[in-house]
Specification:
Chain B: InterPro entries: ACP-like_sf, PP-bd_ACP. The structure holds two protein chains of two kinds. By secondary structure, chain A is α+β, with helices and mostly antiparallel strands. In chain A, 18% of the residues lie in helices and 38% in strands. Chain A has one domain: Roll (Thiol Ester Dehydrase, Chain A), CATH 3.10.129.10. Chain B has one domain: ACP-like (Non-ribosomal Peptide Synthetase Peptidyl Carrier Protein, Chain A, Orthogonal Bundle). The chains are: A alpha+beta, B mainly alpha.
Chain lengths: 149, 83
């Protein structure tokens, strides 16, 4: 399963797709990247004449790459024409350290902590282009697989 | 293990994940995790993992699906620690 296959299975689209590509994917974790374009809709209002990527959007980017892309990869053997993986966010705890401005590319690195009984819990970090840690946290989701719905 | 001892251990495991405090205060063997305590499916998995650690046992998918109430969870734990 390639990075392109995984992204095509994501249930998101513009303006709420925050994955440009994946550089590493395995049963143990995922690494991916996204560039926050100057034209992203939320920069208009967060903040007034002072655009900074909202923490909730950074969290979403971490969840899409770190939990949903990884979850799709983990369920790859179940995927058929009629079955696409579904993943629901169930918890997130994130600490933030640095701002992300329009035009910045971020890299998300996720490590699987637990994947049992369809719950996927990951330790996720987000870095800027300088390699500085922007935020990190623990994000979990429940995966709907074919065998256990 | 004595029933009271087991139920006390179960209560301690379940407490961090409970949404309905009232139902938790009246917890009995008949209490269900999802219906009564309003625990979500992800936290139900956390409870199973905590039960595994507490009693040093391994629970499989089939047993997990049966663990809907305190009573059912206690029965599974008892059958595992007895063997």
């Amino acid at each position: 399963m390639t990075s392109k296959d995984i992204i095509s299975l994501l249930p998101y689209a513009d303006p709420f797709l925050f994955v440009d590509g994946l550089s590493i994917i395995s049963g143990e974790g995922a690494t991916g990247y996204y560039t926050f374009k100057e034209a992203e809709y939320f920069f208009k209002g967060h903040f007034k004449s002072h655009p900074i990527t909202p923490g909730v959007i950074l969290t979403e980017c971490m969840a899409q790459i770190g939990v949903v892309c990884l979850g799709i990869y983990l369920l790859k053997d179940d995927i058929t024409e009629n079955f696409k993986p579904q993943i629901a966010l169930t918890s997130s705890y994130v600490d933030f350290y640095l701002p992300v401005f329009p035009g910045e590319t971020v890299t998300v690195i996720s490590e699987k902590e637990v994947f049992r009984f369809n719950k996927l819990k990951c330790n996720v970090k987000l870095f800027n282009e300088k390699g500085e840690l922007v935020c990190r946290g623990t994000i979990s989701g429940m995966l709907k697989s074919k065998n256990h719905d | 293990m004595k029933n009271e001892e087991l139920i006390a251990k179960m209560k301690a495991i379940v407490q961090p994940y409970v949404q309905d405090e009232g139902a938790f205060n009246e917890l009995s063997e008949e209490t269900t995790f999802v219906g009564d305590l309003k625990i979500n499916s992800a936290n139900l998995v956390d409870i199973i993992l905590d039960v595994e650690d507490e009693f040093d046992i391994r629970i499989d998918n089939e047993e997990m699906e049966q663990m809907l109430s305190v009573k059912a969870a206690m029965a599974i734990v008892n059958s595992k620690i007895a063997t």
